[in-house]
Amino acid sequence: MAVREFEPIVEMKNVGLSYGDNPAVLSNIDFAFRRGSLHFLTGKSGAGKTSLLSMLYLAQKPTEGTLKVFGSNVSLTDRDTLAFLRRRIGVVFQDFRLLDHLSVFDNVALPLRLKGMKEKEIRHRVIELLAWVELKDNMYVKSSEISGGEKQRAAIARAVINRPELLLADEPTGNVDSEIAQKLMKLFLELNRLGTTVVIATHSNELMERYPYPRLKLENGALTYVK
Which of 56, 89, 115, 191 has the smallest count of CB within 10 Å of its CB? Predict the structure, then answer.
């Protein structure tokens, strides 16, 4: 048990990613995220932040090097095991990826239902979280009928409802006002305090200056530690 506690939750050694014959999007990345850490991931548009996150949530495998998530070598892991590992990861996508035909409540409840949780407990947890992100009044509205900022909050609620071990957030405060942004950051910080490893991709210098956590910068396909 002690070994597992000190083992990095994500470990990258000489990791690279290319699409077909195109130049590498990412190259020679060596970094490890320890359990319970929080990092900001920054860089210009097109620097590869979304590509790096997609590897971390196991949507694609590196074309070079070794990526380990929860101790498993991603390149050597079969599809079923990868699907099981993904359940331990929460993801906030920049394009939300909500199911339009479902209500806000049902979108957020989905991870708990897939887990087999009892409906009474699901209802309690979902309503409590929707109240926190100020969506309780719209919880039975279809996700296709709410605003962009509301979709962002619903997507964040869905990502964190299962209390994931690893949370990856791609511009999570990009579509909300500063007051809601601070509230969402408090939610991420509370999850982090409870042990979740959090990686937040952002362009917001204001956010990073307000919360002085370590920054990782992607530039020309390389990852560097800023502070």
Answer: 115
